[in-house]
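haha ok so turns out i had the wrong file open the whole time. this is the CORRECT one, sorry everyone. sequence first:
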Amino acid sequence: MMTMPHERTRSIIQARDFLVDLSQDQALPESIRNEARRLLRHYPTSNEVLLAGKVEEQMKDGLTLPFLSSTTEGRYV
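then structure:
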């Protein structure tokens, strides 16, 4: 089954939220929290991911689907 742009967008945003949770979980070893913080330094925010999706949607060439979406729902805005 093919992953749709809105599903990919939602997964990327959820992965960032997961890394934030890991980075703040005092029950985890410091090394895990540090690694999560290290990854978050360059990880896009949800607004950046959604903006990238919006840009891709506006660049329709008729040949390819956008990789990302401007929404995490199953519709284009």
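The chain has a mean pLDDT of 92.
again sry for the mixup
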